[in-house]
Structures are given as structure tokens and as C-alpha cells.
From TrEMBL:
PANTHER family: LIPOPOLYSACCHARIDE HEPTOSYLTRANSFERASE 1 (PTHR30160:SF19), TETRAACYLDISACCHARIDE 4'-KINASE-RELATED (PTHR30160). It catalyses: an alpha-Kdo-(2->4)-alpha-Kdo-(2->6)-lipid A + ADP-L-glycero-beta-D-manno-heptose = an L-alpha-D-Hep-(1->5)-[alpha-Kdo-(2->4)]-alpha-Kdo-(2->6)-lipid A + ADP + H(+). GO terms for biological process: lipopolysaccharide core region biosynthetic process. One of its GO terms (molecular function) is ADP-heptose-lipopolysaccharide heptosyltransferase activity. One of its GO terms (cellular component) is cytosol. This is Lipopolysaccharide heptosyltransferase 1. It comes from the Bacteria.
Length: 337
């Protein structure tokens, strides 16, 4: 059995697909499973014990004849029994269509015309279903198509990461710590810096027992300068903005006491490792993309406009109205229980 997973990005979506990888391996333990992943996120899957081969996709592939030919050669080097499009966008649909596979599977309501490239179109999925559940449902239907018709579990399998993530420790860890994750790809998901600072200040009592690590991408220059300012101002705060690889970030989260995060990829890593998590939500839906395993608390403002799923907003009331005191209380309850 040869299976190809198409899930290019983003980080959180890839992590939310890992339980489906575990499910495939459970029902087809001898299967060769390959995965097409975006170049920016391949590290989180590198040397994964369940993945035979990673096919690296970059945004330039469809615009460079040489890169496209090389990618297509790698893609078509195997005759897959099934290709599963977990992404559901035009580029993933094209990749699925170009593969040499008996079954090319996706949902009929996947976006950007991607279902045109499938020869097996599943009925439309419920858009309010959590992403992890949606991917599991797609996987279950694939398993049925491949002939495993009995005893399909409804449980979400534990995700599995590359073994070095489980086996490594970070040298700079001196005492128990908390991880705070302020940034996301959408600016509308950000909790204001002023709220974060007030929250950090409120955590002074926790700073006696825990270090606080701030994380984020180096591409956010304002985040970097703000985090360094917090590091100078509060002796229990350390900035790791732009200083960690994806695997280091996963290790950091894995060994943390608790995580406080906006709706972003590292929040899903926290779920995957069942770390106690306070998730701050505004424009997006926790029912669709919130924490999904372990102990967690979702904090959101009860506004009729939320969730709106907008990437731009002039008011950002949904984030502004979340109070630092409420987040602190939720964090304390998770740590104590």
C-alpha cells in the first residue's frame, strides 16, 4: 500500500493532520506513506517514523519550469494507491491531479476548484466541524474506500512527532517555565501588546516559580523589539523570538508547564502534547480551530460579530475586550489543577 498525503501548510494545519497520519498507520501498518509539505514547514515532519518520504513544495514551483519538472518527477516516481488532499486548495488539487494514483480523494466542497482534480469526491463537510475531526473523517472515508470496513474508531489518535523532539532537551532550561505566544499570521488574531504587558506584569507572582518564555517569528520586527523590552523590564521573562527552529519550538512547548497563546500553529503543538493551554480567540472559531486535546481554557469576548473570520478589522473589539485579569485567572486555574 502506497499513500500520499497532501498538506502543505500552515504549521497548525499540519499538526492537526498528524492524528490522521496515526490513524492511517494504525490500519495500514506496512504502508509506505509519503507527504507533500511546504518548504517552510518540512522541519516539523523531518525524520518522522511514519513517513517514508517528504516531497518539498515551494511557492516558486509553478513559476519555474526547472523546479516544476523536478517536483513532478519526484511526485510521479511512485504509483500511489491513494492520494488524500487535506489542504483543499487549487495548488493541492493540482498536485493531487498530477500524481499517479488510483484514488485521488477530497471533499466536494473543498475550495478554489480543487475538487476538479479528484476522481473520488466525498460529500461536503460540515464547516463548523473542528479541523482535526474533519481530517479524521476524511481519513476514515479513505480507509473504507481502501477496503477496511470494520471497527473504525471514532477516537482521535495521539499525534506522533519525529523522535528527536521527544528525546531532546533544551540546554537553556533552568527551571519550570511557561510559554507565551503573542503572534499569528493574521494581524486580527493578535492580542494587543499593552494587554500582553499587563498580563506579564500580573504574572509577577508566578515568576517566582516559573520562567516565562516569549516566542514568535523573526519576521515580526516589532514583536522582536517588544519581546526584548519585556525581557529587560521583567526579570522572569526571556525572549526567544526568532531564536528557535521549529523542532526547538516543539521541544520547548512539550516540556512546558503551560502555554498561553493566540490562535496560531504553536497552540496546536501544545494541544498535540496535551499541555495545559489558555487560548485567546477573537475573529476565529475555537469550535473549528481551537485546542483539541489535554486541559485547556478558551478566552473570548461575547460579541455578536465574533467570529467574523476577517483578516483585517479597524476596531478589533473582539481582542481588545479580552482582559488580562481573565487570562491570568484561567492560567492559574490550569496550573493549580
Amino acid at each position: 500500500m502506497k499513500v500520499l498525503i497532501v498538506k502543505l501548510s500552515a504549521l497548525g494545519d499540519i499538526v492537526q493532520t498528524l492524528p490522521s497520519l496515526s490513524l492511517l498507520k494504525k490500519y495500514f501498518p506496512e504502508a509506505q506513506i509519503d507527504w507533500v509539505v511546504d518548504k517552510r514547514n518540512f522541519e516539523i515532519l523531518e525524520n518522522h517514523p511514519y513517513i517514508n518520504r517528504l516531497l518539498i513544495f515551494s511557492k516558486n514551483i509553478f513559476f519555474s519550469l526547472g523546479e516544476f519538472k523536478n517536483f513532478l518527477k519526484d511526485l510521479r516516481a511512485q504509483e500511489y494507491n491513494v492520494v488524500i488532499d487535506y489542504q483543499g486548495l487549487l495548488k493541492s488539487g493540482i498536485i493531487t491531479g498530477l500524481s499517479r494514483a488510483e484514488y485521488k480523494i477530497g471533499f466536494s466542497n473543498h475550495r478554489e476548484g480543487s475538487p476538479f482534480f479528484y476522481n473520488v469526491k466525498l460529500p461536503p463537510y460540515n464547516k463548523d466541524l473542528h479541523a482535526v475531526r474533519r481530517y479524521i473523517f476524511l481519513t476514515q472515508k479513505t480507509i473504507e474506500i481502501l477496503g477496511k470496513l470494520e471497527n473504525l474508531s471514532e477516537d482521535i489518535p495521539d499525534p506522533v512527532f519525529p523522535l528527536e523532539i521527544y528525546n531532546q532537551k533544551l540546554e537553556f532550561i533552568k527551571k519550570p517555565y511557561l510559554v507565551f505566544i503573542p503572534s499569528a499570521r493574521w494581524k486580527t488574531k493578535w492580542w494587543p501588546y499593552s494587554h500582553w504587558e499587563k498580563f506579564i506584569k500580573l504574572c509577577k507572582d508566578l515568576g517566582k516559580n516559573f520562567d516565562i518564555f516569549l516566542t514568535g517569528s523573526l519576521s515580526e520586527l516589532k514583536l522582536k523589539s517588544w519581546a526584548e523590552e519585556m525581557e529587560k523590564k521583567y526579570i522572569y521573562v526571556y525572549s526567544f523570538v526568532g531564536k528557535l527552529s521549529l523542532k526547538d519550538l516543539a521541544i520547548l512547548i512539550k516540556d512546558s508547564k503551560a502555554v498561553v497563546s493566540v490562535d496560531t500553529g504553536p497552540m496546536h503543538i501544545a494541544s498535540a502534547f496535551k499541555r495545559p493551554t489558555v487560548a485567546i480567540f477573537g475573529p476565529t472559531s475555537p469550535e473549528r480551530t481551537g485546542p483539541w486535546a489535554g486541559k485547556f481554557k478558551v478566552i473570548r469576548a461575547p460579541l455578536p460579530c465574533s467570529p467574523c473570520f476577517k483578516k483585517k478589522c479597524k476596531e478589533l473589539k473582539c481582542m481588545l475586550e479580552i482582559k488580562p485579569e481573565e487570562v491570568k485567572k484561567a492560567l492559574e486555574e490550569l496550573i493549580e489543577n
